[in-house]
Design a protein that fits this description.
2 domains, about 85% helix
Length: about 475
């Protein structure tokens, strides 16, 4: 079982390489496009991408994770499952193409019709890629995935900026997703050339059905939990407020997509090899929880007190209304970073039924908070604050279900690794709150000083309480050279 550590670290390293390179590329591209295009145009694309995500989930039907989990699938089984996804891809793309007019009419935005039709190409290839991408993860080809992702992101970002500079307007925002989905499918399929079968065998589908059906139901529920805000804010508060909210939300998600995602995307492919030893999985998972909490909770405090600097530096003065929205959403960063890893453990333990129940309750909390903000208070900042509250409630609920019913361990075992990260975040928030009134500096200077203060506090805290054994880490680093 010691091999788990080596495989896990290798997967994290290559995933981090792609993600952190992608973060730089993404920030540069976003910074350029945000200064050329209007907030309302970003809001229009945000609406279209919500529908893309929905159709993708309907087409996935939980197949992606089932490919990773089920070790007994044969080449013939995989071929028939791949053929099924091609049928689903075609049906989804056609339905989305013809649904473009009703979607545009509902939002009163004619441009949405053309945008949705173009994105139907993206939808087809995204769904067709489910099995090839699942096989890459199953074979733990993290290095290949990292290099592929980096190259595609760089090329797609360059093309998007070029299109914007040449006056393509809102359509420049479509270049990267369409280019990426087509290119990634071609690259992945070249790695696993699965033959197409006109008739899909039921026996192949049955092997993954009991696992994938609850994963699919969870994906649908989780989609509504995560995207209902975009759909309703765009309809009831307007597309410009949606643009401010969406930009803040995406920026808030960066820590998860580029820190916790690095660990989460590796957990299931690696931990699935130990699905018959749940106690071992639980003990190893607590180490992941401690690491995510140690990063997430202090980061939440840091982002809250540097919200204005990040928004204005990255997007410009026209995005100033996003600052209070971003601050509200940042309160939940630590909770979201830790809970984002829970799904992979549900999957590893073959407990997708509990994962579905967890998602159902999460959606209930999210809908209650969102409706309160939109229809009772009717204000964007309050809505963002209530959405953060729903993430916090879901954090406690998810881990109660995971530890009580799946891992069958005491919940106190889970909270123990959280004590020091929470204390650190409270200390950091107090120091930054006390320092902010005395910092009258330009944006870059203010951000640099706050970053230096936060870095000193975090490193000093970790060193003082000896949270990590640095000598062990150094020895491990020397061995890997």
């Amino acid at each position: 079982m010691s091999n788990l550590k080596n495989v896990f670290i290798g997967g994290v390293f290559y995933t981090a390489l792609a993600k952190y390179s992608g973060v730089v590329i993404g920030l540069v591209v976003t910074a350029v496009l945000s200064r050329i295009l209007l907030p309302g145009e970003f809001g229009i694309i945000a609406v279209a991408m919500v529908f893309i995500a929905f159709f993708s989930i309907l087409s996935d039907v939980g197949i992606g994770t089932a490919i990773i989990q089920k070790k007994e699938l044969t080449e013939t089984d995989l071929s028939h499952i791949f053929s099924l996804t091609l049928y689903l891809a075609g049906i989804s793309a056609i339905v989305f193409f013809f649904a473009s007019a009703p979607i545009a009419s509902y939002y009163g935005e004619p441009a949405l019709a053309v945008i949705c039709k173009i994105l139907s190409v993206h939808l087809f290839f995204a769904v067709a890629n489910i099995v090839p991408n699942g096989l890459l993860l199953k074979h733990k080809a993290f290095k290949f995935i990292a290099l592929r992702t980096l190259i595609v992101q760089l090329a797609g970002g360059t093309l998007a900026v070029g299109a914007a500079l040449r006056g393509f307007g809102i359509y420049a925002l479509l270049v990267a997703p369409v280019f990426s989905s087509v290119t990634i499918f071609i690259i992945n399929y070249s790695k696993f050339r699965l033959p197409f079968s006109p008739v899909v065998r039921r026996s192949a589908v049955r092997k993954i059905f009991s696992y994938s059906v609850f994963q699919f139901l969870f994906n649908v529920i989780h989609f509504f939990s995560r995207n209902l805000d975009n759909l309703l804010i765009g309809k009831y508060l307007g597309l410009s407020p949606l643009g401010y909210y969406e930009k803040s939300y995406r920026l808030m998600l960066l820590p998860m997509s580029n820190i916790s995602y690095i660990l989460v995307s590796v957990i299931h492919p690696v931990f699935s090899d130990y699905q018959n030893n749940i106690r071992y999985v639980a003990t190893q998972y607590l180490k992941v929880v401690k690491l995510l909490a140690m990063v997430g909770f202090p980061l939440s405090a840091f982002l809250f007190f540097t919200a204005q600097e990040w928004i204005l530096l990255l997007f410009g003065d026209q995005w100033m209304p996003s600052v209070p929205v971003f601050r509200c959403l940042c309160l939940s960063v630590g909770f979201q970073m830790v809970v984002s890893s829970a799904g992979a453990i549900f999957q590893t333990a073959n407990a997708t039924k509990y994962l579905f129940i967890d998602g159902l309750l999460s959606t209930l909390f999210t809908v209650l908070c969102l409706f309160t903000g939109l229809f009772v208070i009717r204000e964007l900042n309050a809505t963002a604050l209530l959405i953060s509250l729903s993430f916090m409630l879901n954090f406690f609920k998810s881990f109660f279900i995971l530890f009580r019913f799946v891992l069958k361990e005491s919940l106190l075992l889970f909270f123990k690794p959280l004590v020091m990260p929470v204390l650190l975040s409270i200390l950091l928030a107090g120091i930054l709150y006390g320092c902010c009134p005395f910092l009258h500096l330009p944006l870059l200077g203010s951000l640099a000083v706050k970053t230096a203060i936060a870095g000193a506090v975090v490193l000093g805290f970790i060193r003082f309480f000896n949270i990590y054994d640095w000598s062990v880490l150094l020895k491990y680093g020397n061995k890997t050279r």
